[in-house]
Amino acid sequence: MNMTCRALLGATVSLTLAGAAMAETTITVATVNNGDMIRMQSLMDGFYAKHPDIKVDWVTLEENVLRQKVTTDIATKGGQFDVMTIGTYEAPIWGKQGWLVNLNDLPAEYDVDDLLPAIRGGLTVDGNLIAAPFYGESSMVMYRTDLMEKAGLTMPEAPSWAFIKEAAEKMTDKSAEVYGICLRGKAGWGENMAFLTAMSNSFGAKWFDMDWKPQFDQQPWKDTLNFYLDLMTNYGPPGASNNGFNENLALFQQGKCGMWIDATVAASFVTNAKESTVADKVGFALAPDNGLGKRGNWLWAWNLAIPAGTQKEDAAKAFVAWATSKEYLAEVAAKEGWANVPPGTRSSLYANPEYQKVPFAKMTLESINAADPTHPTVDEVPYVGVQFVAIPEFQGLGTMVGQLFSAALAGSSTADAALAQAQAITTQEMTRAGYIK
Amino acid sequence: MARKTTPAKTAVVTIAAWTIGFLIFFPILWIIILSFKTEGDAIKSPLQVLTSGWTLHSYAEVQTRSNYALHFWNSVILSLGSTVLALVIAIPAAWAMAFVPGKRTKDLLMWMLSTKMMPAVGVLVPMYLLFRDFGLLDSRIGLVVVLTLINLPIVIWMLYTYFKEIPGEILEAARMDGAGLKSEILYVLTPMAVPGIASTLLLNIILAWNEAFWTLQLTTKNAAPLTQFIASYSSPEGLFYAKLSAASTMAIAPILILGWFSQKQLVRGLTFGAVK
Amino acid sequence: MATEQSRTAARLMVSPAVILLFLWMIVPLGMTIYFSFLRYNLLMPGMESWAGFDNYYYFLAQPAFTSALINTLLLVGGVLLITVVGGIALALLLDQPFKGQGVVRVMVIAPFFVMPTVSALVWKNMFMNPVNGIFAHIAKAIGVQPFDFLSHAPLASIILIVAWSWLPFATLILLTALQSLDREQMEAAEMDGANWINRFVYLVLPHLTRSITVVVLIQTIFLLSVFAEILVTTNGGPGTASTNLPYLVYAQSLLNFDVGGGSAGGIIAVILANIVAFFLMRMIGKNLET
What we know:
Chain A is built from 19 helices and ten strands. By secondary structure, chain A is α/β, with parallel strands linked by helices.
C-alpha cells in the first residue's frame, strides 16, 4: 500500500467524520396554533441559514390539547418534545420541579436584560431563567371610538368600572345588534376565570388569604360577580356564557360590541382591515379599576422552554434563542410589517420609533407594566399570579369555579349560589390537597 | 310496506325522502361550501355565503401549514393495520364460539364487550407510562395494537353473530364427507363468511379512522393521524371557519368516499344476527 | 355434535383473543386500581403517598358526581330514543320505492363517517353559535331572538349532535332488517283489512325487535363513553349541566392532573358501566337467543 492510497483513505475517513458532525439534528417543537406561532413556521429561513445542521419539526395544537399533552409528557418524562410552548402559569410550577433546562447561558447578543421585567419575573425561578418569552400580553379595554362619540362620552386613558358601566349602557342598542360590552363567559381557568380573577383584583378580592382559606364568601367577590353579571345581562351579547376570546373577537370585528376587555394581542386583529369591519374605529384604554390601587388587567406570556432530559439541548437552545431574539422581531417587521411582530417581550421593541407608530403599542406596554404577578391583589396573598394562582391544583379549581360562574351568567344559577358552591368546592379541594391544615 | 303504490304516494315519498336526506347531509355539505370561502365570508349569513366568491385559499394555506400527506398516510396505516390485526385474532375466536359453543360462550362475549366500556381518560396515565417504558410513544405499532384492542370486542361480536347464521347442517355434511378442520374452514365456511367479514372490516376501518382520543394522546408527529391534523385548526385566535372547514373536508373525505363506494357491502353484514 | 377434539381446537382458537383482552383489561386497569389508592398529582412527582379510600370518597362526595350520573343516563337514553324512533321512521321511508333511492341513502349514511371532533366543531361553530351560526341567521331572518343552544340547552344540544352521528347507523341496520320482511304476509294482512297501524304494530315491529336490541346494545357501548363532543362544545358546562361521567373523570385526571382522583373516578365508571352492561346483556341475551 502506498502513501496515496493511505492519504485517500484518510481523506475519506475525515470526510465521513465531517459529514457526521454536520449531520442534522432534528428537534421537535410543540406549539399552540395562534397566529404568531403559525407565522414563525413560515419564517424559518433565517434560522436555517444560521444553523444548517438543525431541522425543526413542528407539532401545532389547539391550546387545551397542547397544554394537556405537554404536561403529561413532561410529568412522565416521556421525552417526546425538545422545545415546548408553555404559559406563564406552568413556568413557575415546572421550574420548581426542576423539569426545565436553565437558560442562564444564552449568548450575550441575546441581551436578557432587554426582556420586560414583569414578564421576565414570571419566568424566573430561584434566580434562574427557565423559559424565554415568545410573546407577552396583558388585557385592556378596546372600544369603538364612533359609538363612544355617539354616546357623548370620552374614554379616559384609565377608566373606572363605574364609567365602563355608564358607557356600556349608553352604547347598547339591541335592535341594531350593538351590545355595550363583550366579556368572556365561557367556563375555564384560562377563559372566564382569567378575566374574572383579574377583575376581582381591582375590587379588592382574592382567591385565598394567607392561610390558604378560600375567600369566595367575602364581600369583594360578591361585588365582583354581581357587577359582572349586571353588566353582561343588561348590556352583553346573547349566549355570552359560551363566549371566549375567539367568539368575542368575531363579535367585535363585526361591529357588535361597544367595548371589549380582553387580551392586548387582540388589538392587532381588530385593527386589521382585512378581517375587521371596524378597523379604523378602535380606541384603547387601560383595564378599569375601582380606585383601590389595582387594575383589572392580567399578565400572560407564551414562552419557549426546554424539558430537562432532552438529548438535543444545544440545538433546542439555539432555536429558543433565535425565536425570541431581537433579530427575529426585526425579521418579522421586515417581511410582515411592524404590527405583526410578536409583542410584549422586549423593551427595545417599544423604544423603537417605528414600532411606536403602531396604534396599540403604547397601551400594550403600559398594561403589561401595570401588572405585577408577585403582588397581584390589594391585600397580601400567599400566591403568585395575576389571573391565576400558580399552584398545580389551580387548573382544576379554576375550571370548576369557572363553570359555576358561567352557569350564573347563563341564568341557571344565581350569584349567591355560585359563590357558595365555589367556596365549598375550593375548601374541599384545598383541604384534600393539604393546604388547609 | 305493501308494494302497491299510486303516483301521488310515490311523489310524496320522493319529496319527503329527499328533504330529510338533504337535511341530514346538510352539515357536511355546508363544511364543503365554507371551505371554498374566505374567512371573512364564512361567518356571514347563509345567503351571503352562497353568493360570495369562491376561493381555494384555505386549502392552499392548510397545505403549506401542515403535512397532510403524512397524517393521511398514518390514518390509512393505523386503520388498516388495526383492522387486519383484529380480524386475524377475531376470526378464529368468533368461529370457535359460533360453532363449538360452550356453556360460558355468552358470558365470554358479554365480558369482551364490557372491556369496551372502560373510560379511556381514566387510564391515560398508566397507558402513557407503559408506552414510554416500551418505547412506543409516537409509534404506529403501539397505536395499531391499542386500536386493535379497542375494537376487538365489536369485531368478534359482529363476526360471531354472522357466523352463527351459517347453518350447522352444512358443516355436518362437510364432515360426513370427511373434510378436516382445515378444509372445512377453507372451502365451506370462508365463501359463506366473506360478506360478513367484509362488512366487519369496513365498519372497523371507519371506527379506527375516527378514533380521536388515543390517536391524539399517544402520538406527536411521526405517527400522528388526521385527528391531530384537525386539532391544529380548531379554535385558534382569530377567524377560522374557512380553514377549519378545509381541514375537516380533507380529513373526512377519504373515509366518506370509501363509505359511499362500499355501502352495499357494509350494509349486507350489518345485521348482527338480527335478520333471520 | 362437537367432539372433544373440536372443543380443544375451539379453545385454542378463542384463547388469543381472550388473553389479549384480558391483558388489555388487567394491565391498565390494575395500574389504575393501584393509582386510585394513592395521593398522586402528576405535577408533584415524588409526593405520592397512600391515600386509602380518600380518592373514592372525594370523587363520590362531590356534587358534580350525581349530576354526571344523571347526565350520562339522559345522554344515552336521549340519543337512543331519537336514533331508534328516527331510525325506524327513516327506514320505513327509505324502504318505499322512490326516485333517487341510492343518492338519498348515501346522504343519510354520510354523518356516520364524520369524526366526532369534526361534527362537534361544525355543529358548535357553524350551526349553534348564537351570532354566526346558521340557526342564529335563520332566527334573525324571521325576526326572532337567536336561541343560545349551548348555554340554555347544553345537554339537549349535545344529544342532538351525537344523535346526528348515530342516526345513520340505526337507520342502516333497521333498513336491512326491514328489507327481509315477508312481503306476502304483509299483503295478506292488508287484504284482511288490517290498517296501517295494525300492520306496523303486529307485523313490522315484532320483526324489528331484534335489530332494535342490537342498535341499543352497540350504541349504548359507545354512548356511555361520549367525550369528544362535550370537550369541544360546552366543556361540561354551564355549571355541570352537560358533564357526564367520562368528562368528570377527564376533569379530574387531566385538568387537575390528579391521577389518584381520576383513577378512582375511572374505576367507579368501569363498575357502573358494567352494571349497565349486565342488565343490557340480560335483556339482549333473551332477545338474541336462537
